[in-house]
Design brief:
With 542 residues, the protein is α/β, with parallel strands linked by helices. Helices cover 41% and strands 11% of the residues. The protein has 21 helices and 15 strands. The protein has an eight-stranded parallel beta sheet with strand order 4-13-12-11-10-7-6-5. Strands 1-14-15 form a three-stranded antiparallel beta sheet. The N and C termini lie far apart (70 Å).
Length: 542
């Protein structure tokens, strides 16, 4: 009796109905040949479902299929389309991660030059913890020319670069499709701003469009490496002296996975990628966690100076997600003691992340952009070096308010990766690491990549940049200012509870010029500075 109740349990009904339907169709067709040929369709369908159900009963990897034959496949189907269902049917305008629907829509509208105004008041909660705002002026000014620029290049730089305050952050060809790279670089050319290559090196797709390029040099030294993966000065100089390359960026780490190397499997190393990166075809393309060209603060500065000389005097800087603060202070102390300074530093926040990474790295390793940027800015001020070094930053920057806030925290310019991905058609499908991007942005599949029409997306990239800076100019005018470099911490507020509001000046205390050299007021910071050793990152940890 128990066996019968088990066999005829409701969870087995789909299999029983399929088997019964198959037997009935087969019987009818056998007893009345030629009279019920239309039953061939349900016969095949029931036979297929019966085969699937019997297979579910005997397979071993999935317990839910053994207990719910046929029926459990609905669970896997719903699980597969769950992100799309949530995104299109259930998300509110302010929900969604990493970027809300409202944020994505704003980029799309500006890229397409559609109306980007919002009706009926804010959908944010002004009295909720974490809400932030900018103080306006009773004496607003006429909007300034939105082509805000900053000159990058220290005393040892022969070819300083006039950079826009809003540029495309590091994304490699290989991570992005050829058409996506062409569209981004073409938009940078049209809009007069810069495009960071990512560590995948300069590709023909960058060169075809002619936009200004920041060449990122990672630990794999792609494009400037020897066969055994070491840095090649000759290959570097050959590329770095091209007019299109405006700055050189040494990548120490990135927000998505700081301190983590990377591997592009051999199967994904196409002949084109192998030629661009200078790696063997048919082998894994390895990007080590650490550089081999230097291992100490002093060696890093010597390497940067060498790159500056080899490039003909172009600005050279570093990019990193801030980790142990004492290690960065060691680099600062090395610059203060030797007089050899970087031309720029880009602070990548841990909230950045166009690349795939282990969950633990993406969620819990590295410093968020605001804290990292403010610490780096203060350290340079405290060491008397801030006026010699420009600061860039990246980390979920998509709007003019994001730029304004970052510049108040110490940035001279901002970079955006995912914002510009939205402008070329990214829909946040979260399939970047699968090579199955539905819009042809993050894929090496040529058939998927061809869906992205370069000429159309070039216009959208330039539109998004122009509209965002136009809004920045309007924010400045409303604040009584002329240039985004004039934003200050005391102009920004954050709600820390329902009844308490804090100024950014209180949340992010500033160091006085030269304070680290004289002795910082904060005893912990003073101890970190004392321990900082220009000859060793390891000895400087705190």
């Amino acid at each position: 009796m128990r066996m019968l109740s088990l066999v005829f349990a409701p969870r087995h009904w789909p299999l029983l109905f399929s088997a019964g339907g198959f037997a009935w169709c087969l019987t009818v067709m056998a007893l009345h040949p030629g009279e019920h040929d239309w039953l061939a369709i349900p016969l095949v369908l029931c036979g297929l479902l019966t085969t699937i159900g019997l297979g579910d009963l005997i397979q071993k990897p999935h317990a839910v299929l053994r207990n719910y034959p046929i029926l459990a496949h609905l669970r896997f189907l719903i699980e597969e389309i769950r992100p799309e269902i949530r995104q299109y049917l259930f998300e509110s305008e302010t929900d969604g991660a990493p970027f809300s629907r409202d944020r994505r829509a704003l980029v799309y509208q500006r890229a397409k030059m559609q109306l980007d105004k919002r009706p009926f008041g804010t959908q944010l909660a002004p009295y909720a913890d974490g809400y932030e705002w900018l103080l306006h002026s009773f004496a607003p000014r006429p909007p300034a020319d939105p082509d805000f620029r900053v000159t990058v290049g220290g005393p040892g730089c022969a070819q300083p670069y006039s950079a826009s305050v809003f540029n495309i952050s590091a994304m490699s060809f290989g991570a992005l499709s050829a058409n996506a790279i062409r569209a981004l670089n073409g938009g940078a050319k049209r809009g007069g701003f810069a495009h960071d290559t990512g560590e995948g090196s300069l590709s023909p797709h960058h060169e075809a469009q002619g936009g200004d390029v920041i060449w990122e040099i990672g630990s794999g030294y792609f494009g400037c490496r020897t066969l055994d993966g070491k840095f090649s000065p000759e290959k570097f100089a050959e590329i770095a002296r091209k007019d299109q390359i405006k700055m050189i960026e040494i990548k120490l780490s990135q927000g998505a996975k700081p301190g983590h190397g990377g591997v592009l499997p051999a199967a994904k190393v196409t002949p084109e990628i192998a030629a661009i990166r200078g790696v063997p075809l048919g082998e894994d393309c390895v990007s080590p966690a650490a550089h081999s060209a230097f291992s100490t603060p002093l060696e890093l500065l010597a390497f940067a100076k060498n790159l500056r000389d080899l490039s003909g005097g172009k600005p050279v800087g570093v990019k990193f997600c801030l980790g142990r603060p004492g290690e960065f202070l060691a680099l600062v102390k090395a610059m203060a003691q030797t007089g050899v300074t970087l031309d720029f530093i880009v602070v990548d926040g841990k909230e950045g992340g166009t690349g795939a990474a282990p969950g633990e790295f993406m969620d819990h390793l590295g410093t968020p952009m605001r804290e990292g940027l403010n610490f780096v800015h203060n350290a340079l001020v405290g060491a008397g070096l801030r006026d010699k070094i420009r600061l860039g930053c990246s980390g979920k920057i998509t709007t003019a308010f994001d730029i304004a806030r970052a510049m108040a925290l110490g940035a001279d310019w901002c970079n955006a990766a995912r914002g510009f991905m939205f402008s070329v058609g990214c829909i946040q499908s979260l399939a970047c690491h699968t090579d199955a991007c539905p819009t042809g942005v993050a894929t090496q599949d040529p058939w998927r990549g061809r869906a992205l029409v370069v000429t159309d997306k070039i216009t959208r990239v330039a539109n998004y940049h122009r509209a965002t800076l136009h809004c920045l100019a309007e924010l400045l005018a409303a604040s009584g200012l002329d240039h985004p470099g004039e934003f200050s911490l005391d102009q920004f507020r954050r709600r820390v509870s329902e009844t308490n509001v804090a100024s950014f000046a209180d949340l992010y205390p500033a160091l006085e010029p030269g304070e680290l050299l004289r002795g910082a007021r904060d005893p912990n910071l003073r101890l970190l500075w004392e321990r900082a050793d220009p000859q060793s990152f390891a000895a400087s940890r705190g």
